[in-house]
Specification:
Elements: E1 2-3, E2 9-10, E3 20-21, H1 27-39, E4 48-52, E5 67-69, E6 75-77, H2 82-86, E7 92-97, H3 102-117, E8 122-127, H4 153-161, E9 169-172, H5 178-185, E10 190-194, H6 196-203, E11 211-215, H7 221-231, E12 235-237, E13 239-243, E14 249-253, H8 256-264, E15 268-276, H9 280-289, E16 295-303, H10 313-317, E17 322-328, E18 344-347, H11 350-360, H12 376-379, E19 384-385, E20 388-389
Parallel strand pairs: 4-7, 7-8, 8-9, 9-10, 11-12, 11-15, 15-16, 16-17, 17-18
Antiparallel strand pairs: 1-13, 2-12, 3-20, 5-6, 10-19, 13-14
Helix pairs in contact: 1-5, 3-4, 4-5
């Protein structure tokens, strides 16, 4: 198992935390520079359109388009005749998709090629998920030996770029910024959009009394700090290991002093994460908090809800201590969520993305400041370009 070293304590006082923002050092800032080079004086952004593709079945939309699924499992997207559907062929086309599988990525590229054959000059997919995001680097076993599994995210990025049919991309809440880094290596501007602030606002977390925030692992420690700072409440971090040789099954430990503090203040715990996949981490935290916390609220941008080994995400999330689960419709859940219907709240991304696109239709190319795609007074949405530079815990 690979140990994740985490800060475990900030339980005795509230957190005052602001992430470092940089146009020079952050992956989002570097992607922004490449984006500017790619799109400056190339198209008229006012002559543009946003189309829902149906790829991945998310975000939810009522548009009459979708994907044909053949008996062999092949996924073939349908498309519009743009001149008939829109009355013209736009110079710039935004394609909303959730390419969770490799087949969906291939379909998205094929859709972009088809629309370019109709006369579109530039195509930008807005992706609310991306296939193989977790296969972004090599993993190691408990002895430090590399696990000989192929890393495939680089190939996914190259498929998107290949052929020149897709000119740039926007990815909502990437699992890591590795996809942005790999895209930059091959000259493909992929803008990472942070949806965490949207999630916090829509979940109305300020109404929770005696709140205590827990970050489940190293990858989400900044989100936990930000949320604790916003709510002016204490926080703590779990210690998590994964058995990489057995499906990545997690083992989660909450330090005793953190548990005792949660019990003393009769805390309602908020767990924040970017996604819920098999739900093992959330289930482990719920078991560890049983008898200490008053309740648990889970907030995650992506509710994948997959089957794990023996138990599904639903099995973990029906834990009685978990009272609320707040997600977005960034991905289509892989299992039936009816058992969670009384505690599940889903925030729609479609209207927020439409506002983001409306902003880009007037401001496609960045100005020389930090507020491009970040100022909600101009974008009208909490979705924002991620320019944060990760700070290392002391």
């Amino acid at each position: 198992m690979g140990q994740l070293e985490l800060s475990t304590i900030n339980v005795r006082g509230s957190v005052n935390y602001e992430p470092v923002i940089s146009l020079e050092e952050s992956w989002g800032g570097r992607a922004r520079k490449l984006w500017q080079t790619r799109f400056v004086e190339t198209v008229n952004p006012f002559n543009s359109a946003l189309l829902y593709t149906g790829i991945g079945g998310a975000p939810l939309d009522n548009a009459k388009v979708g994907v044909r699924v053949y008996g062999d499992g092949s996924l073939i997207p349908k498309y519009f005749d743009l001149r008939t559907h829109l009355g013209c062929v736009p110079e710039l086309l935004f394609l909303l998709a959730s390419p969770f599988s490799t087949d969906s990525v291939v379909g998205l590229r094929g859709l972009a090629r088809t629309y370019k054959e109709q006369g579109v000059q530039k195509i930008i997919p807005i992706m609310t998920s991306l296939a193989h995001e977790r296969q972004d680097h090599q993993f190691f076993d408990s002895n430090g030996k590399p696990i000989l599994e192929v890393t495939t995210l680089k190939d996914i990025v190259e498929i998107l770029k290949d052929g020149g049919y897709i000119d740039g991309g926007i990815i909502i809440q990437p699992h890591s910024l590795r996809s942005v880094e790999l895209a930059l290596r091959v000259g493909f501007p992929l803008l990472p959009i942070d949806a965490f602030k949207l999630l916090v606002e829509r979940a109305e977390l300020r109404n929770i009394k005696n709140a205590f925030v827990i970050g489940p692992d190293k990858g989400r420690k900044d989100d936990a700090r930000i949320l604790a700072s916003v709510l002016d409440c204490p926080m703590g971090s779990a210690l998590k290991t994964r058995d990489r040789l057995n499906g990545g099954r997690p083992t989660v430990i909450i330090p005793d002093d953190v548990l005792q503090h949660i019990k003393e203040i009769q805390a309602n715990v908020i767990i924040v994460d970017d996604e819920i996949r098999e739900g093992g981490t959330i289930g482990g935290l719920a078991n560890a908090l049983d008898g200490f916390a008053e309740s648990i609220t889970v907030c995650a941008v992506k509710g994948i809800f997959a089957h794990g080994e023996g138990e599904s995400a639903i099995d973990h999330l029906i834990h009685p201590l978990i009272k609320r689960i707040v997600i977005t419709d960034a991905v289509k859940p892989l299992t039936d969520t009816k058992p969670l219907r009384k505690k599940l709240q889903t925030i729609k991304l479609g209207p927020e993305i439409a506002r983001l696109v409306a902003y880009l239709q007037q401001n496609l190319v960045p100005s020389n400041n930090e507020v491009w795609l970040r100022d909600r007074n101009k974008t009208n949405t909490p979705l924002r370009l991620d320019l944060s530079v990760e700070q290392i815990s002391k």
